Amino acid sequence: MLTSIAISNFAIVESLELEFKQGMTVISGETGAGKSIMVDALSLCLGDRTDAAVVRHGQKKADISASFDIQQYPHVFKWLEERDLEHEQHCILRRVISKEGRSKAYINGRPCTLSDLKEVGSYLVDIHGQHEHQSLLKKNAQRQQLDEYGQLTELSKKVSQQYSTWRQLKEELSAQQNRSSEQDAKIQLLSYQAQELQQLDLKDGEIEELENEQAFLSNIADSQFKAYQASGILIDSDEGNVCSLLHQAINSASQIRPATKELENALEMMNVALIQAQEAADSLHHYQDTLEQNPERLNDIEQRLSDIYETARKHRTLPEGLISLRESVEVELGSLQGSEESIESLKEKEEQAYEKLTALATTLTEKRIVAKDILAKKVEEQIHGLGMPHARFYIQCQPLTQVSANGFEDIEYMIASNPGQPAQPLRKVASGGELSRISLGIQVVTAHTSIIPTLVFDEVDVGISGGIAEVVGRMLRSVGKRGQVFCVTHLAQVAAQGNQHLRVSKLVENQATSSQVELLKDQDRAQEIARLLGGLELTEQTLAHAREMLGNVQLQ
User: InterPro entries given for it (predicted)?
Assistant: First the structure.
């Protein structure tokens, strides 16, 4: 539940810190004093949109923080743990808005997104505004409210998700079944291209190897001649060759006297050169023996290269791109052929998805029928006590011709305000005053089953007075017994029912206006109840009436 709120420089609030208890907390005050400012500030902590106008005039920023005791709410613990947000006993939500309109959000002191703030806030507080009855005119809101009351929200979500799955499969199946002739022509073209490229069967690096081998085979005769010529220069020529010349040089140098160190080095190098020349000549002879002209192999290579170049030209790509082209053609062809072959499989999946959808929707319908009767009965009991004793409230589940994302039925609230009249949609027959009462009755009923710890009712008693107002106050007090209720009100009968009473007043000082909040006790509370009863001029009679109202509440 909400344990405290701190507001700084928000609207006409300069600085405000309040602590709260369990039960029903009443907030009252004169018109324009800022009774709803606390609700607005709390709404920002729960992720509502805002702008720079909320920052108090002359200040740089507005700062609002709300602290919640979450010990008894494990689903909130779980939500925080899943996002690695540290927590102990409390969850602290904070919102800072600059005068430029920039906004920052925090959960337990760590920056967060506005959507995170809104999500965790939805587990902690539910705000019912004075215009809440307007949403009751929309069938979608009525359906959601019924599902929430019957604890069918998760089941309804599953139906919606399964409906999306089924629709996607159905559309995919339809697209497959209505393939155009252009796609058929595409398959034929790709099949021909794939067959041609498969027959070519080009390997990675093959072109380079073929070109190198072609160059080698084309130049064998020239290579043989040059190898013969080189070996002749080294050792085979009768007219003088490198080896015979080296022999002569070695003989001449060997006869030099005296033999010095430099001469020995020269002789050693010439001997090494002679050996290397002889070995080089042997290698050339061996190389010549390996060279053999192969015109058939050369012809095969040239034909293979010609096929490769021709195929590349036909497909308007480089020869090296034929391998990747084959892969892409096969993938695209496989996709088209696979889609063609998968129509039956897709049809089976679509049928299975529809069966699952109808099963979920049927279960949802059965549970809605049970929940709608219970909700309608309880709401009817409440609105009888709110001055509509002859009203009959129904929730209609109109079957649809086919299943939708919301199930097999259309939900709509129906009301018969007077005996003998047929029930008609709420949006058509209820007056503004009736709508306010019906809305309040529904909110009170649904609040009893809500798992949200803190409920805020912001002037939901507009248009109600007298004995009915006292009934409203008792309703709200009873809701507060199971958790925490805040009620902004202008009715004494409602205010008297509160376990805690806060009064909002406006203070003008040094040409600046600020809003103040004080906790009322005993005589001060009686005076505020009297003010609500009789206006600014308090009489002993209105004070006595106020004390009597408070005393009666204590006796309940």
Answer: DNA_recomb/repair_RecN, P-loop_NTPase, RecF/RecN/SMC_N
